[in-house]
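Justification of computing resources. Each target in the renewal requires a structure prediction run like the one illustrated here; the chain below, 292 residues long, is used simply to show the kind of job we budget for.
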Amino acid sequence: MVQFKEITDITERKVIYPTKLVFLPHLTDASAGSKSHDEWMKQNWWMVNYQVLTKDKPKAKELALKLYEIWRNNHLDLRVGELVGELRNLRAKDYSDFTALEQWSWGAYKLNNYCGDISELEAIQEALSCYNGEVLEVMCGHHSYFDKAKLCRLVAVDYCKESLERYQHPDSQRYCCDLNQVRKGENLQFFTSNSFDVISVCFGYKYPDDIVLLMKEFHRILRVRGTLSFVESRTHGSMGTYQKFNRRKFKPNVISKELKGVGFRTTHLRRLYIEDQYRVGMAPIYHIEAVK
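Resulting structure tokens:
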């Protein structure tokens, strides 16, 4: 059975840093800046000023102060080693070792505004402004492409809990669910058939393991004459964190065939007009609509 959780918590949309720097005592008698001190720093890099999770900062600070006090009184005190070990256990995981989900969660905490090009955002919002009724925004992240003033009832799905807690429309229903759980014989059981007038996927086509199976599931939960909407580009998600998610390239002719293959009656594909698109170096963005 597909696992999911309805998110009811709300985190204020401001920059939240998940980690804090801890200033650890340099357990050496060598003067700062001296050759001996530099050598000590190289040998003990693993116990010199590092990041801990924000919730662990008070404990780490307390341990660091206690460590220095004990070491200063007796360099050979066995408690020195014990405290160093406790501090090492509090050390936050390095960003380079994060899983894709952990990187996404990290970004959800640190981003409080739309980080893309504003003209791009406006063009997408304009393309989606015709939708109304029951709208499912899939792989929404913490930012919605639907204007707050739009008269539609939004439901959001993402696999990042932190993103959904900061979702731009906190009064909407929000479901945390990894859509890769949708496999043969498994569906989004928390949505009944014929539930939605529109399903919107903005820049999410490349990420699922099996996009065709998901299209079939979207077809099930759409009402008759409902619309499945994709906004996508060839280059979006080709750099940074997004690379870990990519499973396929976006090709307009391929997605059109896939949509028709799972039962959608008609598809419409058009390029969005974005002011100064070529000057800022953005690749064309396409809006694909498929009708059940």
